[in-house]
Amino acid sequence: MYTDHTMSDDFMLDTDDIQRRMDGAMASLRTEFGSLRTGRASGSMLEPVMVDAYGSMTPINQVGTVNVPEPRMVTINVWDKGLVGKVEKAIRESGLGINPQLNGTIIMLPIPELNEERRRELTKVAGQYAEHARVAIRNIRRDAMDQIKKAKADGISEDDQKFWETEVQNMIDAQIKLVDQALENKQEEIMQV
Fold it and tell me: In this model, does residue 166 exceed pLDDT 80?
């Protein structure tokens, strides 16, 4: 502890807030990874798909019931039959590579086997999602470093500045490692036949 610290030395960086924001970036990455289909059907693969419903972009699970009746089939029971076409269009344009089949208000999504080429494409998409997460985390670092610079201008000591910069960098490095590990796991999962 400092014996003679003035008010300006009482700078405390909100590391909980930094961690909360990084956790948010990871949660977002997990959702995006969940949407990358492997050979198995999963309701979460539709999570990032948004439908233009009633004038706003809406998640599919808010316009219909998503079910997985069998390992290679996802169904969506659209509540408002006026939205069936929009849901179908959203899926077609989502890049999931699935051809929706209509059966009244039920949209059936047969999950095709993944060929080698498609698996490689998906690992690239996973890489892009991971890069978005890394960028988000680097932005959090930049914000924190800006706060530290401002505190330095307001009079915190150089030792304190170095301490906080190291603290932030260690948090960021640990988080980037988690992103890289999650990406590696997801890419392995995609490549498994």
Answer: yes
Query: Does residue 10 surpass a pLDDT of 50?
Result: yes
Tokens read off for 111: 């999950």
pTM of the model: 0.64
- The SS3 call for residue 146 is helix
User: What pLDDT was estimated at residue 5?
Assistant: 41
Structural domains in the chain? 9-32+116-191 (1.10.132.20), 40-110 (3.30.1360.40)
